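Form 7-S
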Amino acid sequence: MKKILVVDDSALMRRVLCDIINSDERFQVQDRAVNGLEALDLLSRKSYDAVVLDVNMPQMNGLELLKELQNRKIPAKVMMASTDTREGAKTTLDALELGALDFVHKPNNAMDCRTDAFKNRLLRILAVVSESRAPVFTSARTLTAEDTKTSKKVLELVGKKASSVTGNKIIALASSTGGPKALQSVIPKLPKNLKAPMVVVQHMPAGFTASLAERLDSLSEIRVKEAAEGDTLEAGTVYIAMGGKHLNVQSSGGRYSIHYTNEPTREGVRPCANYMYESLMDSRFDQVVCVVMTGMGADGTEGIQHLKAKKKIHVIAQEASTCAVYGMPKSVVTAGLSNQIVPLDQIAQEIIMNVGVK
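Output:
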């Protein structure tokens, strides 16, 4: 049975969350804390399979606790319980950057937390987080002149090779748990003169994907946006699928555009990467570069299998030890679909090498 720590300053919310968690025989709430300070004391003495953490609390809030856990190198598998306002989305992304693995957006009213929809969502995410890899805190090493020289050399070589790559290509990337942070290790490394458009399905609810796209855009020289209905795909732009809808790539008159559909969830998620991959089956791209990164389950595998029957593809899977959850990439590898298995910090350069630069 998985041991859980619940951290929330509202006595009613704590009771509701604990009731939900204890109603599932896989979990047991071991301890409760009313703020980050109490939680920090518990986490420095005991270990838990997962922590359910509120954001806004007196004395020490959720983000301050995550920073302190990083400073003290206390590995904890944390899921945030946050509100889904625009401000909430920004705070949630901050939390994911600070090491939280996933989040559930909770209603403001504790009574609304008793719905089956919220209960099922909380338990599903808790199950994923409790099985995830705890964050690893490596001691920060100062970059030497030699390191800088080496990375410049690598980029020069990549740039030289990439400038001779030919063909009309598209990159289609899928990620889930651990994805928002992992995407920050990939997209900001892509150059603005990338010779292909990139479509991304990251499993996230509506409202959060716009904030994710804005944040990635601010960190990158390549353009990043939340894909809007009817957007025409352009090389050197990354299109993030809107939460809550399935993203498809449609072609008309030699141009490609974004089209959303509202089919039910597939693989338990919406957006589902399988739809994105399958929508490229009849496209005229010379090659589809498929990238499958950290995440629970098997989303992407079926879609890539169908795509491979019709198109030339190149599949890059994220290497296990660099995934928060080795589910989606493992499924692709097990199905014999991967051409490359690459650590997270090398995915960007492999994308560049495969699609080229202008």
